[in-house]
Structure formats: structure tokens, C-alpha cells
């Protein structure tokens, strides 16, 4: 005995084809949305990184101030060593009172 069919073969193929097209369209839409989100996230992170690097860049005035501060530090250390060596110039190397 033959098994009864509730729908015709043509309707069955049409529904199957229609469902496959719906699935493909849905997957295509999901891929587009996913790729757009990933691209925008990447661009935001890259943009924030560039902004941070640009913001951290020192101005010529700040460079000059840092150089001046370094020079003053070096000169103070040289003066300390000179005074230390001048105090220790005596024969016994004892500190002067």
C-alpha cells in the first residue's frame, strides 16, 4: 500500500526552494551585520589608538622644559661632586669642621 501524501510534489519543491532562499538571505544578512560590527569596532579601536598617540605627543615647549630640567639636574650633581671632592682634598680625608 502506498503512503498517502498531504501535498503535491510541486508544492513540496516550491516550499523547500522558498525556505532555502529564506535561509540564504538570512545568512547573508547576518554576515553583513556581523562584518559591519567587526569593521566598526576595529575602526573605533584604531581611531582611539591614533588619538591617544597624537594626544600624548609633547609640544616643543614641553620638550624645552624637560631639557632644561635635565640640564639643571646634571649641573646640581656636578656641583655636589665638586664640593665633595673639594672637602676631601686634605691629606687625612677627614671632613672639615
What does this 3D model show about the protein?
The protein has 97 residues and is an all-alpha fold. It is built from two helices and no strands. It has two domains: 7-57; 58-88. The chain has helices at 9-56, 60-87. The longest helix has 48 residues, at 9-56. The N and C termini lie far apart (126 Å). The model has no long low-confidence stretch (mean pLDDT 88).
Overall residue-averaged pLDDT value: 88
Helical percent range? over 70%
**Main sheet properties:** none
Structural class: mainly alpha
Number of strands: 0
> H/E order of the elements?
HH
Q: Given the structure, what is the number of helices? A: 2
Query: How large a portion of the residues is in β-strands, by DSSP E?
Result: under 5%
Name its key features.
single chain; 97 residues; mainly alpha; 2 domains
Summed up:
The protein is an all-alpha fold and 97 residues long. It has two helices and no strands.
Please give the structural blueprint.
Layout lengths: L8 H48 L3 H28 L10
Amino acid at each position: 500500500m502506498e503512503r498517502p501524501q498531504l501535498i503535491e510534489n510541486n508544492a513540496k519543491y516550491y516550499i523547500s526552494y522558498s525556505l532555502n532562499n529564506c535561509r540564504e538571505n538570512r545568512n547573508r544578512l547576518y554576515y553583513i551585520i556581523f562584518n559591519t560590527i567587526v569593521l566598526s569596532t576595529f575602526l573605533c579601536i584604531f581611531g582611539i589608538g591614533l588619538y591617544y598617540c597624537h594626544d600624548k605627543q609633547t609640544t616643543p615647549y614641553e620638550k624645552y622644559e624637560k631639557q632644561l630640567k635635565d640640564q639643571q639636574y646634571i649641573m646640581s650633581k656636578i656641583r655636589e661632586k665638586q664640593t665633595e671632592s673639594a672637602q676631601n682634598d686634605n691629606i687625612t680625608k677627614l671632613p672639615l669642621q
